[in-house]
Specification:
Blueprint (H helix, E strand, L loop, with lengths): L2 H10 L8 H4 L28 H14 L3 H16 L6
Length: 91
């Protein structure tokens, strides 16, 4: 037996057998991570831009504070911008 195989077997030796299906019913429910827009409403596209490091830090802090993605911070910022300055034309 190879050393790698022995090492892997020793790592998993104390795990034991898996639980029966009746013991895990209902354990695989995944809750949403937090507020935000519904997913899969529109295909996403990548947006690459350069901003000052201080802006990047602020966006990350805001996203972490509100438990949302960086993308969601940008989407919400654009919505607020459009409220103040008018919507962008539909192209």
């Amino acid at each position: 037996m190879s050393d790698a195989k022995k090492k892997v077997q020793s790592m998993f030796a104390s795990i034991g057998s898996p639980p029966s299906p009746s013991e895990v019913v209902g354990n695989l429910v995944v809750e949403r991570q937090g507020p935000g827009r519904p997913r899969n409403t529109e295909p996403s596209a990548q947006l690459n831009l350069r901003v000052p490091m201080s802006v990047k830090r602020r966006v990350r802090v805001l996203a972490t504070r509100d438990n949302i993605s960086l993308s969601e911070v940008v989407v919400r910022a654009i919505a607020l911008y459009e409220e103040r300055h008018g919507s962008a034309p539909n192209l």
